Write the structure tokens for this entry.
Amino acid sequence: MKISFALNGRPRTVDVEPATLVAELLRENLNLTGTHVGCDTSQCGACVVLFNGEAVKSCTLLAPMLDGGTLTTIEGLSGPGGSNALHPMQQAFHENHGLQCGFCTPGMVMTAVALATKNPTPTEAEVRHGLEGNICRCTGYQNIVASVLSGAAAMNAPAIGE
């Protein structure tokens, strides 16, 4: 079947089988490999993307559901004004050492962007609760939480001249 949706800010039309998962579509058909598949059981959160602004696990979403919607992957994040700079949440993960092996990082970042968009000033407890669906086997989470707090502040800081 043919579906049309916005992918990382650009219109896309693709042919998919009805049972195709979004994670599969992204990685195998569209060559967007930043979305990771870590468990195939919806437990790890490495495959989180933003669908219509909501953080969703792409391993549980069927591609036909994208029709008419908006999908943002880790590759679709960008710095201020679409610059080549890192997105503020990505920069915060870099500055706060919020990653080690990096496998969970795309899902963590996408979950954190959704969290900070809904709650511009989250508490540490709210960040920890918001990340409950994402597993990291390396960091112990403290630097991830610090990254999300820093990233949320940066995402929601007034632009220069405001």
Summary: The first strand starts at residue 2 and ends at 7.
